[in-house]
Design brief:
The structure is a single chain. By secondary structure, the protein is α/β, with parallel strands linked by helices. The protein is about 30% helix and about 20% strand. The chain is built from five helices and nine strands.
């Protein structure tokens, strides 16, 4: 098994595309192929010491899932499985997709929800990124002047995504060294 597990939630496929790009950048020897969270169990995640976990934010700051209007189960349905799980000793890098123009009051909130849930399970985190360059009002993913992970706005700043992703991967590289 590779050292890094990549898991994502999606409906439209944007988070999956980012996960596939991350996998391609890291390579098969370092990372296993990305897995949609709808097809994963907590034990699947616990099999890795290093995880890269991604999510879009839906509606008014919701995790993707059936009540948020996705066509299939996703993070919303997975989250109850985390109850009682022990992620102590696991390192997690998070990425989130959001729309800062359309949803400035809950920009990438789902990213913050994942952070809180995995932090409650004892995980350690890497990959916080600056909030500079984004124009939003509020975000559950922001802690001071940093987001808890990589934030991509494919709707309004797609041209910045590739560089942001490359810089973030360089930043978290020490996690699996």
């Amino acid at each position: 098994m590779a050292k890094v597990g990549i898991f994502f939630g999606t409906d439209t496929g944007n988070s999956r595309k980012v996960a596939k790009t991350i996998h391609k950048q890291l390579g098969d020897e370092l990372a296993d192929k990305p897995v949609n969270i709808s097809k994963a169990t907590v034990d699947d995640l616990l099999a890795y010491d290093v995880l890269i976990i991604g999510t879009p934010t839906y509606g008014d700051g919701e995790l993707p899932g059936l009540t948020a209007g996705t066509s299939a189960e996703s993070w919303e349905e997975f989250m109850p499985q985390l109850a009682g799980a022990d992620f102590s000793g696991k390192t997690i890098a998070l990425y989130g997709l959001g729309d800062q123009v359309g949803y400035p009051d809950n920009f990438v909130d789902a990213l913050g929800m994942l952070y809180d849930a995995f932090a409650d399970c004892g995980a350690s985190f890497v990959g916080a990124t600056s909030t500079a360059g984004y124009d939003y009002n509020k975000s559950k993913a922001a802690m001071g002047d940093e987001f808890v992970g990589l934030v991509l706005d494919e709707d309004n700043q797609k041209e910045l995504s590739e560089d942001r992703l490359q810089d973030w991967l360089k930043q978290i590289e020490s996690s699996w060294a």
